[in-house]
Amino acid sequence: MYFGLLIAFVPLCLGYLITFKNQQWITKINKTLSWMVYFILFLMGSELAHLDNLQDNLQTILFYAGVLFICTFGGNFIFLMLFDIFLPWQTSDTKQDIGSRFKMILESLRVCIALILGFIAGLIPLFIWQYNEDITKIVLVFLLLLVGIQLRSNNISLKQILLSKVGIATTIIVIISTFLGGIIAALIFNQPIRVGLAMSSGFGWYSLSGLLMTEAHGAIIGSATFLNDILRELCAIILIPSLIKRYKLTALGLCGATSMDFTLPMLQKGAGIMIVPSAIVQGFLLTLIMPIFMTLFNYGYFF
Q1: C-alpha angle with apex 108: 207 to 291, nearest 5 degrees?
Q2: Is the pTM of this model over 0.70?
Q3: What is the rounded distance in angstroms from the CA atom of residue 20 to the CA atom of residue 110?
Q4: Is-contact 108 234, C-beta < 8 A?
Q5: CA distance 85 to 292
Q6: Going by C-beta distance under 8 Å and a sequence separation of 6 or more, which residues neighbour residue 171?
Q7: d(C-alpha 280, C-alpha 208), whole Å
Q8: Which of 152, 190, 242, 259 suits a disulfide with 283, CB 3.0-4.6 Å?
Q9: Where are the alpha helices (DSSP H) in 190-275?
Q10: Comparing C-alpha atoms, which of 106, 108, 99 is closest to residue 241?
Q11: Per-residue pLDDT tens for 104-162?
């Protein structure tokens, strides 16, 4: 139990204490993180290939992912939309083109390709698969260390976070509505409440959420969590152009943790530069608390 907490907290905190001012090093860290995401998903795919009764388990994975997504993303949408209607956020209009949604969707689908390749490789009887769990833990520690460094490289001070009322507000709404959805999903799954809360607390960070849940509950729960978070990213990309002009808070909140990186360009193009600080703060906070919440729920500190 304590090892699970340490493996999540210590590397993230250590990474956050490391400061890189050289832009070339920051770029290298970002590229390394991108490649590590694909490697992690490759490992998840290989674990999936070793499941017994794969066909039945695949149906379970899709059922879990579908229900979880409807409950969490649907809850986010309803709560954020109500917030947008009663307390709309007015920013200066922009005439920038949103860009190609199709291109960004293809970018997201690349992670699914990595998962599929891992599954295919896992079907090949190789001795290295017996070390899969150990490799996964090493990769997890290194990933969190780099994420901590990446968060620090954004130079977000406590003052900037406290001043971004919009970023804090959308973060709180996303957390509350996501956890409510996770509780409902857990009741439908007939799983402990803490499992539903853990599955829902990825906030769109699919690479880490799938890995942590696989470590704690096995490949079925881990794969369902991953699919839920990748669906969030895909649906956010699809919905941003339709929502961003009139419902800015909804468009921002639905992006979850990705508002700091992957979906940030779309948000900026649609709503202008004024949305960027709030988007970064929301993404920063959700990225920071995600492994904390998920680890605490996984190891039974709540419920």
Answers
A1: 20
A2: yes
A3: 29
A4: yes
A5: 32
A6: 281, 282, 285, 286
A7: 19
A8: 259
A9: 193-200, 206-217, 219-243, 248-254, 264-271
A10: 99
A11: 666 667 777 888 898 899 888 888 888 887 887 788 788 778 877 877 776 666 666 66
Q: Number of helices and strands (H, E) in the chain?
A: 13, 0
State CA 266 to chain mean position distance: 17
CB atoms inside a 10 Å sphere around CB 294: 25
Using CA atoms, how far residue 165 sits from 93, 94, 114, 171, 295, in Å, is: 20, 22, 38, 10, 27
The per-residue DSSP string of 21-38 comes to --HHHHHHHHHHHHHHHH
DSSP states along 163-196: H-HHHHHHHHHHHHHHHHHHHHHHHHHT--HHHH
Angle at 267 between CA 245 and CA 293, to 5 degrees: 120
Q: Which two tokens stand for residue 278?
A: 């709030």
Which tops the pLDDT comparison, 18 or 90? 18
d(Cα 33, Cα 143) in Å, to the nearest integer?
7
Residue type, 93: D
Burial of 286 per CB tally in 10 Å (0-12, 13-18, 19+): buried
Q: Which of 14-18, 27-31, 110-114, 245-249 has the highest mean pLDDT?
A: 245-249
pLDDT at res. 302: 58
Lowest mean pLDDT among 149-158, 256-265, 290-299: 149-158
Quick one: what percent of the chain has pLDDT higher than 90? 27
Place of tokens 């590590």: 36
Q: Which amino acid is at 68?
A: L
* Beta carbons within 8 Å of 235's beta carbon, 6+ residues apart: 73, 254
pLDDT band at residue 241 using 50, 70 and 90 as cut-offs: confident
Q: How many CA atoms lie within 13 A of 155 on its CB side?
A: 4
pLDDT at res. 2: 47
The Cα 216–Cα 230 span in angstroms is 20
